[in-house]
TrEMBL record:
It holds the Pfam family HTH_6. This is DNA-binding transcriptional regulator HexR. Gene3D superfamilies: Glucose-6-phosphate isomerase like protein, domain 1, Winged helix-like DNA-binding domain superfamily/Winged helix DNA-binding domain. PANTHER family: GLUCOKINASE, RPIR-FAMILY TRANSCRIPTIONAL REGULATOR.
């Protein structure tokens, strides 16, 4: 019995199609990974095309399509296609969008529907234990680093700003005019690195993960695509950013960041409350707000 078959036998048969694909990504070879990304970008394609047509659209071989569907727990492409069609009929919004089919009901309704589905899938994959473990570790760390590139930079800035209400030593990278090497040379084993790894991510994200591992710092990843480069992260928080247009839909990413910040403040205890009280005193002295 080969490895593909074993993986198929152990797959949770009740898991939705999109979650199967996302969970399988770190284990896929390059051609399968390419197909997985295509399917996640346009999941509705699976319902209306043959295996050969999907292979052509994703620019992979027919054999890759066959291996891929077994990897995510289906016995054949037809079985996977039936599962997608069943989920479409059950109302899974993202599976109704494809690269060629425009959404109906107007732009506002389509955007809301995609956002709502992203939120459902994002929250469905989160775990209280993981969130609180990360929040407690951040409160105990001498320094917390938030790192994000491209779209991830905004979320790193947001997390740095919000958690600095209770954390006294926060750094957001990359900093203007400074290389990563100049910043991360100060990384220590007790530090926590929170890496925001959203599509299309910079290649430097993998270098940050390696730097955290080399320094024996704790690594947390907030991601919308699992990657082998971050597979060893101590904390992994997934969000869904699928969209039916040219821009990724980041409502799920914002929800995860807000949850992490809120829990970090909530578990900070007396030390956190004392710091927040000092900040409020500063607001009054500076008359800033």
């Amino acid at each position: 019995m080969n490895g593909d078959h074993l993986r198929w036998m152990n797959t949770d048969k009740t898991k939705p199609f999109l979650l199967r694909v996302r969970d399988a990504l770190p284990e896929l070879n390059p051609s399968e990974y390419k197909l997985g990304e295509f399917v996640l970008d346009f999941p509705g394609e699976m319902a209306g095309y043959t295996a050969s047509e999907i292979a052509e659209l994703a620019n992979v071989s027919n054999a890759t399509v066959s291996r891929f569907v077994r990897r995510i727990g289906y016995g054949s492409f037809d079985e996977a296609r039936r599962a997608v069609r069943d989920e479409q009929r059950a109302g899974t919004a993202l599976l109704r969008f494809s690269s060629e089919t425009p959404a109906s009901g107007g732009a506002v309704a389509a955007h809301f529907e995609a956002s709502q589905q992203n939120m459902d899938l994002t929250y469905g994959a989160l775990d209280d234990t993981v969130i609180d473990s990360l929040s407690e570790a951040m409160n105990a760390a001498p320094r917390v680093w938030f790192v994000g590139f491209r779209a991830g930079q905004s979320f790193a800035q947001y997390l740095g700003w919000q958690t600095s209400q209770v954390l006294s030593n926060v750094s957001v990278l990359p900093r203007a005019g400074e290389t990563l090497a100049e910043s991360l040379v100060s990384l220590s084993p007790q530090d926590i690195v929170v890496l925001i790894a959203l599509r299309r991510n910079s290649k430097l994200a993998g270098a940050v993960a390696k730097a955290a591992a080399a320094a024996k710092a704790g690594l947390a990843v907030i991601e919308d695509r699992s990657s082998p480069e971050t597979a060893d992260a101590r904390w992994r928080l997934s969000c869904v950013t699928s969209a039916n247009g040219p821009l990724m839909n980041h409502v799920g990413a914002m929800a995860v960041c807000n949850l992490v910040a809120a829990r970090t403040i909530a578990v900070s205890g007396a030390a956190g409350r004392s710091r927040m009280a000092s900040i409020e005193d500063g607001h009054r002295r500076f008359d800033e707000l």
